[in-house]
C-alpha cells in the first residue's frame, strides 16, 4: 500500500512538471508568434510607404519631410515643390525612427509644423509615420481649415464633418504606425500600416487646401513622434 501511494505521488509531481514545461513552451511560442506578427506588420507598413514614394503620383508631391535635420526650427522639403516647414513651439528631435536611421520630431501637444504645401480639392494623399501613447486632445496629424486627419483611432473628413471615416485600429500603443489618407473625386480612403482601415464615397471636396503638421491650424495638437510626412496634390 505504501509503495502504491509513493508511486502515485511521483506521478503527480511528474504531471506538475509536465504542466509547467508546457506552460513555459506556450509562453515562448506566444512571444515568438507576437514577434513574427509585429515584424510582419512593420514590413507591410514599410512596403506601403515605399510604394507611395514609387507611385506615378509622386511627381505631384507638394511636400516630403524626412525630418533628418535632427535640430533647428526649419524642416527641408525633399520634393521638387520646395515647401519647407517651420516648427512652431518647442519640439524634441529623436533618433527613434521607423527605418532605424535619421531623425523624427517629437511634438508635445502644443508644437506644430506650418507649411505652404497644399492638398488638392479633387485629389490628395496625406501620409506619415506616427508613434504615440497619448490620446490627449484630438491628436491631429495633418489637418487644416478644409480637411482633418486625427485621433488615436484615426478619423478623417472635410469641412467640419471631420469623422466621415473612422478606423477601428488603435495606434496609441507606443509603436510606429504608418498612416495614409487618399481623397479621389469624392472617395475618401484610409490606410493603417498598409491595410485599408476605412473608406467611403460621396465626400465633398475640401473647402481649403491649407494643411498643418501636428495640429488643426493651431489647436488640437498631436502628442508624440512623427516622421516621413508627405503630401500629394492635383
Shape: globular
Number of helices: 1
Q: Give a short account of the largest sheet.
A: 8 strands, antiparallel
Helix/strand-derived class? alpha+beta
- How far from one another are the termini? 89 Å
CATH third-level topology? Jelly Rolls
- Counted beta strands: 16
CATH architecture: Sandwich
Number of domains: 1
Order of helices and strands: HEEEEEEEEEEEEEEEE
- Helix proportion of residues, in percent? 10-25%
CATH class, named Mainly Beta
Mean pLDDT: 90
Q: What integer value in Å does the Rg equal?
A: 23 Å
Name the poorly predicted regions.
Answer: 1-6
- Beta-strand residue fraction: 35-45%
3D architecture notes:
The protein is globular, with a radius of gyration of 23 Å. The longest helix is centred in the first third of the chain and has 53 residues, at about 1-55. The chain has one helix at about 1-55; strands at about 60-65, 75, 85-90, 90-95, 105-110, 110-115, 125-130, 140-145, 145-150, 155-160, 160-165, 175-185, 185-190, 195-200, 210-215, 225-234. The N and C termini lie far apart (about 90 Å). The chain has a single domain (about 50-234), classed as Jelly Rolls. The chain has about 230 residues and is of the alpha+beta class. It is built from one helix and 16 strands. The strands form four sheets. Strands 1, 4, 5, 7, 12, 13, 14 and 16 form an eight-stranded antiparallel sheet that branches.
Structure summary:
The protein is an alpha+beta fold and 234 residues long.
Topology:
Blueprint: H1 2-54, E1 61-65, E2 74-75, E3 85-88, E4 91-94, E5 104-108, E6 112-115, E7 123-131, E8 142-143, E9 147-150, E10 155-158, E11 161-166, E12 177-184, E13 187-192, E14 195-200, E15 212-213, E16 223-233
Antiparallel strand pairs: 1-16, 2-3, 3-6, 4-5, 5-16, 7-12, 7-16, 8-15, 9-10, 10-11, 12-13, 13-14
